[in-house]
Amino acid sequence: MKNFQIAAMAALVAGAVLAPFSAQAQQNGVTRTDLQRHDLSAPEREAIQVRVDLAPGVAFGKHTHPGEEVIYVLEGQLEYQIEDKPPVTLKAGDVLFIPAGTVHSARNPGNVNGSELATYIVEKGEPLLTLVK
């Protein structure tokens, strides 16, 4: 019984910690799956990994992160608009680095699902994602 109580408490804590991150950026055609989150040796910094899936033709609007984002495209193709630079389209196996606080957006220009592994190196306690108008 004690093991069950410990497991139940761990599940509640994990849900309370991860729920704000998955709820922040869900929209139709966009799925964010939180994979892991760990404190770093650098003070007040943490690493967060998220799988982001975009359905064909779906876009995720302009936003920023409170730290660096390192992207690895897992499948399909994704187009990224970083600030006012020309858009760049990446395919499975391609990578992209987005500096902290940089306004960017993403869309799936293809006709199959597009997926990325996003690794964030961010300030602890800050919202992982802030939408920009």
Entry summary:
Helices cover 17% and strands 49% of the residues. With 133 residues, the chain is an alpha+beta fold. It has one domain: Jelly Rolls (Sandwich), CATH 2.60.120.10.
Summarize model confidence as the mean pLDDT: 86
The sequence of SSEs as H and E is HEEEEEEEEEE
- Tell me the Rg in angstroms: 16 Å
Strand order of the largest sheet: 1-2-9-4-7
Provide a count of the helices.
Answer: 1
Assembly classification: single chain
Which class of secondary structure composition applies to the elements?
alpha+beta
**Total number of distinct structural domains:** 1
Largest sheet: 5 strands, antiparallel
| Low-confidence regions | 4-25
> Could you please say which CATH topology applies here?
Jelly Rolls
What is the second-level CATH architecture? Sandwich
Work out the strand percent. Answer: over 45%
Question: How far from one another are the termini?
Answer: 51 Å
Annotated CATH homologous superfamily: Jelly Rolls
Helix content: 10-25%
> Which shape, going by the Cα principal axes?
globular
